[in-house]
UniProtKB/TrEMBL annotation:
Family: Belongs to the ABC transporter superfamily. Drug exporter-1 (DrugE1) (TC 3.A.1.105) family.
Domain of life, per lineage: Bacteria
Protein name per its UniProtKB record: Daunorubicin resistance protein DrrA family ABC transporter ATP-binding protein
GO BP annotation list: daunorubicin transport; doxorubicin transport; response to antibiotic
Keywords: Antibiotic resistance, ATP-binding, Cell membrane, Membrane, Nucleotide-binding, Translocase, Transport
SMART domains in the record: AAA
GO molecular function: ATP binding; ATP hydrolysis activity
GO cellular component, one term: plasma membrane
Subcellular location(s) of the protein: Cell membrane
Length: 320
C-alpha cells in the first residue's frame, strides 16, 4: 500500500459541448475517507467512473492503490470494490448465491467462495435472509448485500457512489455503520454524496465539486471556518416584536439579520458567539420582548456549499 491510496491530477472529461470535469485534483491518504460533495450534475459520478477505469479522461492522470488507471486498468480493478447508486444484485439469486457468484467471478475456488460468502453474510447481518431471493429484501438489506459484494475480494480501496440514495433513515444509518467498519479495518473509501450530514459524519476530508471543478477541500471544520462565525437564532412569542429583534440582532451580529415572519424568527451571523447571545437577550429584556426560543449554531456544510456556490446541494441543474 502506498501512503496515498488515490490520487487524481488535472482530470478533464467532456461530452460534446459539456465539460463534465475541468481539471479535477483529488488525494486520499491510505485508510481514510474522502467525501466528494456536490449536487447532481456536478461531476461526482464522472470522477468515479474514471477512477474505476469505466471511463477514460480526455486529459490528466489518476492512480489507485499505486496503479495508473490508464496504463494498468486490470491492476486497478483488482484493487477496488465499487458500489453504485443502485444495488447491483441479481434479484433471482439468494443473498448467499449473489456473494458466492461474485467470489467465483474473482477466480476464487468453490471452497474459498463459499467461505467468503458466509463470512460476509454474517458481517453484514444478513444471516436470517441468506437463503431468500434478494428481490424479497428491503432497500437497506439490498444496499448491505451490494456493499458486501464490493468487498468480496478484500479490496484496498472501496468506491461508494451515493450509497444511501433512496434509503430510509434506518437504511442510511445501517450503511453508515458499515462504512465505519470498513474504515476501522483500514480500507480507503471514496464516498460521493449529496447529503451534507453524511459527509460530515463519515469523511476525514471533503472535496466540494461544482460544475466539474473542485472549488474547496479540507476537513469539515476547515470548510466551516471558511464561512466564518456562528449563527444566532431567536424566536419570539409575538410576531409584532420582530422589528425590534431585527434591530437588536443587527447591532450585535456581524452581518445583516434575516427575519422569518412566519416562523417568528430572526437569524444573524455572529463573531463573538456566546457574548453576542448574552448581549442580545439583555437588550431584548430591556425592550420587554418575550423570547420563545434561542439557539447558537456553528456553520453547517450546507452553509459552506451555499456560501461557495450560491445554491444548496439539493438544487439540481439541467445537464446533458
Amino acid at each position: 500500500m502506498t501512503p496515498t491510496a488515490v490520487r487524481a491530477e488535472g482530470l478533464v472529461k467532456t461530452f460534446g459541448d459539456h465539460r463534465a470535469l475541468d481539471s479535477v485534483d483529488l488525494e486520499i491518504p491510505t485508510g481514510q475517507v474522502l467525501g466528494l460533495l456536490g449536487p447532481n450534475g456536478a461531476g461526482k459520478t464522472t470522477t468515479v467512473r474514471i477512477l474505476t477505469t469505466l471511463l477514460k479522461p480526455d486529459a490528466g492522470r489518476a492512480f489507485v492503490a499505486g496503479h495508473d488507471v490508464l496504463a494498468e486498468p486490470q491492476a486497478v480493478r483488482r484493487s477496488i470494490g465499487l458500489s453504485g447508486q443502485y444495488a447491483a444484485v441479481d434479484e433471482n439469486l439468494t443473498g448467499y448465491e449473489n456473494l458466492y457468484m461474485v467470489a467465483r467471478l474473482y477466480g476464487m475456488s468453490r471452497a474459498d467462495s463459499a467461505a467468503r460468502a458466509c463470512e460476509l453474510i454474517d458481517r453484514f447481518r444478513l444471516r436470517e435472509a441468506a437463503d431468500r431471493p434478494s428481490k424479497t429484501y428491503s432497500g437497506g438489506m439490498r444496499r448491505r448485500l451490494d456493499l458486501a459484494g464490493a468487498l468480496v475480494a478484500a479490496p484496498a480501496v472501496v468506491v461508494l457512489d451515493e450509497p444511501t440514495t433512496g434509503l430510509d433513515p434506518r437504511g442510511r444509518l445501517d450503511t453508515w455503520s458499515v462504512i465505519g467498519e470498513l474504515v476501522a479495518d483500514g480500507t480507503t473509501v471514496l464516498l460521493t454524496t449529496q447529503y451534507l450530514e453524511e459527509a460530515d459524519q463519515l469523511a476525514n476530508t471533503i472535496a466540494v465539486i461544482d460544475r466539474g471543478r473542485v472549488i474547496a477541500s479540507g476537513t469539515a471544520d476547515q470548510l466551516k471556518t471558511q464561512v466564518g462565525g456562528e449563527r444566532l437564532e431567536l424566536v419570539v412569542q409575538d410576531p409584532a416584536d420582530l422589528p425590534v429583534v431585527t434591530r437588536v440582532l443587527g447591532d450585535v451580529g456581524s452581518g445583516a439579520p434575516e427575519p422569518h415572519e412566519q416562523l417568528r424568527k430572526v437569524v444573524v451571523a455572529v463573531d463573538t458567539g456566546p457574548k453576542a447571545l448574552v448581549e442580545a437577550l439583555r437588550r431584548l429584556d430591556v425592550e420587554g420582548v418575550a423570547v420563545h426560543d434561542v439557539a447558537l449554531h456553528r456553520p453547517t456544510l450546507d452553509d459552506v456549499f451555499l456560501g461557495l456556490t450560491g445554491r444548496r446541494t439539493e438544487e439540481q441543474e439541467d445537464r446533458p
